[in-house]
Amino acid sequence: ALVAVAPELQFEEVLIQTEGDRTTTPLSQAKTPGVFVSALREKLLAGEVDMLVHSMKDLPALPFPGLVSAAIPKRENPLDVLVSRDNLPLRLLPSGAKIGTSSPRRTASILRSRPDLQVTDIRGNVDTRVAKVRSGEYDATVMAWAGLARIGRLSEIAEELSPVMFIPAPGQGALAVEIRSESAELLGLISTIDDEVTRLTTTAERSVLVGLGASCSTAIGALATLEGEQLLLTAELGDPATGAYESVSERVKINPKQIQLAEQLGLSVADKLLSGDVARKVGLI
Ligand SMILES: NCc1[nH]cc(CCC(=O)O)c1CC(=O)O
């Protein structure tokens, strides 16, 4: 998309390994946020690269000094999907089937839909996780539609999971193109691929994280949609130990330029979640 809007620019891809790629520790136990982004941001600040493309859901929710999200391109599909042996849908998996996920949010959703299944940690990139299902090491795994789409493996999907039971992570499926704040010329070029609706909806979703003071171990999902002039935000806090959950939905009349209203909506939803029982059970308050 960037080559199309800026044919005069030369793009050189630089692959940078991050702690998140290397570590085998579940992300939910990471001590610092941003295991996928710290190494990248160091190279951007040092001028070794001029632009980063992040999965938005890997980004800590607070802005980073000296850097800006120059573009948030249009999000396609934010949902979670099931990859399973014999392509069975979730409801047809045999009782006791072994489901691989290291995500507290997905664990809570699985236990809620199918308390008879066994959830165990799984790590590795998307290819590795799919291979672990195909080899029979796991009966199924839950992953992001977007992760499979980016490596051309949508045909692995057994079932698209409804956001009613499997609310996605805040920002899931969206990308963020990050540059140094002083790169004004680059900002002008890159911002042409910004999608203001995606920016608005993902801002509302990520503000829930800010309001909760959430960490990688918080089972929090959030999904916002713009329906006409209404921004609708649903967020869900789960308890991965029991599958208990609390859901809050709010809406606000908005035009897509009103980013601050989207932030306020996220903070308001977070406040409501914080006053509930699940927030106490999982130690958020
Ligand atoms: N958890 C790691 C991660 N970070 C981003 C994606 C891909 C989806 C996206 O970019 O939103 C994934 C894989 C997954 O959740 O299955």
UniProtKB/TrEMBL annotation:
Q: Which cofactor does it need?
A: dipyrromethane
Q: What name does the UniProt record give this protein? A: Porphobilinogen deaminase
| The protein's Enzyme Commission number | 2.5.1.61
What the entry lists under Gene3D superfamilies is as follows: Periplasmic binding protein-like II (3.40.190.10), Porphobilinogen deaminase, C-terminal domain (3.30.160.40)
- A Pfam match: Porphobil_deam
Quaternary organization: Monomer.
What does the further note read?
A: The porphobilinogen subunits are added to the dipyrromethane group.
- Which residue ranges does the record assign to the Porphobilinogen deaminase N-terminal domain? 1-186
SUPFAM superfamilies found in the cross-reference section: Periplasmic binding protein-like II, Porphobilinogen deaminase (hydroxymethylbilane synthase), C-terminal domain
Query: What is the role of this chain?
Result: Tetrapolymerization of the monopyrrole PBG into the hydroxymethylbilane pre-uroporphyrinogen in several discrete steps.
**What InterPro entries does the annotation carry?**
HemC, Porphobilin_deaminase_cofac_BS, Porphobilin_deaminase_N, Porphobilinogen_deaminase_C, Porphobilinogen_deaminase_C_sf
Kindly state which reaction or reactions the protein catalyses.
4 porphobilinogen + H2O = hydroxymethylbilane + 4 NH4(+)
* A GO cellular component entry from the record: cytoplasm
An example of a GO molecular function for this protein is:
hydroxymethylbilane synthase activity
Provide the positions where the record notes the PTM S-(dipyrrolylmethanemethyl)cysteine. C216
Instruction: Answer whether the UniProt record assigns the keyword Zinc to this protein.
Output: no
* CC cofactor note: Binds 1 dipyrromethane group covalently.
Family listed: Belongs to the HMBS family.
EC class of the enzyme, as a word: transferase
Domain of life according to the entry: Bacteria
Q: Name one GO biological process term.
A: protoporphyrinogen IX biosynthetic process
Give the source species.
Aquiluna borgnonia
Entry keywords, A to Z: Porphyrin biosynthesis, Signal, Transferase
Where does the Porphobilinogen deaminase C-terminal domain start and stop, copy by copy?
201-274
